[in-house]
Design brief:
This protein has an 8-stranded mixed β-sheet with strand order 1-6-7-8-9-10-11-12, covered by helices on one side. 36% of the residues lie in helices and 22% in strands. By secondary structure, it is α+β, with helices and mostly antiparallel strands. The protein is built from 13 helices and 15 strands. The longest helix is centred in the first third of the chain and has 26 residues.
């Protein structure tokens, strides 16, 4: 019991040491970054270079789970091993030898308790990549602990909806003071792929994923809905759900990114997706950002593990309905912290452009505006549900650039 408990407090330990790690590793002159140029709205980033497009692979859901990831692992397996080895060493340096060994010895137990088909798929990834199952599990369940993201939904005057997001990750995982980069973010970029999820020979949905990650963070289901997920900080965080999952066999809760995979596979429309994302009991708090095919079908679902708050495009503002939603990693009814305020510049740039210019191009430009674009940004994706369009581009943020 003591060994398992030590494993489960990893997230708590990481959160406690994060501020110390940042102070130690990120020697960034904040005063240099806080200036008028830093709030300048980007207007020429779109269209991005074709060379930055992420490659496309297929996941055949008609295959047995053990075989679904084999083609991708044959291509990306070596890079995945390099990444996870680095993550392992970084976590080891944070938590120390004893807790680290306890973590690693308990990961297979976590894997075997995961719902079908996720455990079976992880076994397949381990088999075809040559990586131990414990490390595949580590990669899949602790990824979200280091993620900071920005999602935007916008509606044009004709009622067409557009959805975009920056996926920012790698916070506190190895700051390279010489090159001003996060080591893990650098190694995730070549692992970023677009996946076409096939069922009965046709595309069921598309997603932007990291190779070897079996959950879904960014996706579109043609003629149905678009989706993205942003991390939410809360006192009743994922470690409590993980504690209940392992110590008390509480399997009547869902892992966040596994739930969203189920929604992408099973939900027939925007309303079904919204209901399932709102009402399913979760292992961890999160923000779900959902867009549909009809006017005003756009919402941010702020989730506790058991409850939710919903902000929709048809929510009344001062004198009219909203035409855009911006979600970062802080509740929409609270002011973001001064050291991580991506909401304010994104909102300013959208308002400056106006609804008449709402488009995928506008969203890309806003997501390219610093500090919405930052050193953690691994990719930018754009989605549109009616056409089923989904594209993702690898990003970098030249200095001067905010570290997160």
């Amino acid at each position: 019991m003591g060994r398992v408990f030590s494993f489960l407090i990893l997230v708590t330990v990481l959160l406690e040491v994060s501020s110390l790690a940042l102070e130690k590793e990120v020697r960034c002159p904040f005063s240099v970054l806080v200036g008028p140029f830093y709030w300048k709205c980007e207007k020429t980033a779109y269209p991005p270079a074709e060379s930055d497009l992420v490659p496309t692979f297929e996941v055949d859901l008609d295959l047995p789970p053990l075989q679904r990831w084999a083609p991708l692992m044959r291509v990306k397996g070596p890079k995945l091993i390099t990444l996870v080895d680095d993550v392992k060493e970084l976590i080891h340096s944070v938590v120390g030898e004893k807790i680290f060994n306890t973590i690693m010895s308990n990961l297979p137990k976590v894997a075997t308790s995961l719902p079908y088909p996720f455990y079976e798929e992880m076994v397949g990834i381990a088999t075809f990549s040559g990586m131990p199952l414990s490390l595949v599990t580590l990669y899949n369940i602790f990824y979200e602990a280091f993620t900071l993201c920005t999602s935007i939904i916008a509606q044009d005057p004709e009622g067409h909806l557009y959805h975009g997001r920056n996926l920012d990750t790698g916070l506190f995982l190895g700051w390279d003071a010489k090159n001003h980069t996060w080591k893990v973010a650098e190694k995730l970029r070549p692992l970023t792929v677009q996946l076409d999820w096939k069922k009965n020979g046709t595309t069921l949905f598309r997603s932007i994923n990291f190779a070897g990650y079996v959950g879904v963070l960014t996706a579109v289901k043609k003629d149905k809905f678009t989706f993205s997920l942003d991390k939410r900080f809360a006192l009743n965080g994922g470690y409590m759900g993980l504690l209940e999952w392992i110590l008390f066999n509480d399997y009547k809760q869902s892992w966040v990114a596994f739930l969203t995979r189920e929604v992408m596979e099973e939900a027939a429309n925007y309303d079904e997706a919204q209901a399932k994302l709102s009402k399913t009991r979760l292992l961890a708090p999160v923000y779900f950002i959902l867009g549909g095919i009809k006017p005003y079908q756009g919402c941010v679902i702020t989730r506790d593990r058991d409850n939710f708050n919903m902000l929709s495009l048809d929510s009344k503002s001062i004198d009219s309905k909203l035409w855009f939603l911006v979600q970062t990693n802080y509740d929409h009814w609270k002011t973001p912290p001064f050291f991580d305020d991506r909401r304010t510049p994104a909102t300013k740039c959208l308002n400056q452009a106006g609804q008449k210019n709402a488009s995928l191009g506008l969203i890309y430009n806003v997501l390219s505006t610093k500090p919405v674009l930052n050193k953690e940004t691994v990719y930018t994706s754009l989605m549109e549900a009616t056409s089923g369009q989904l594209q993702g581009w690898i990003r970098s943020c030249p200095d001067p650039c905010w570290p997160w």
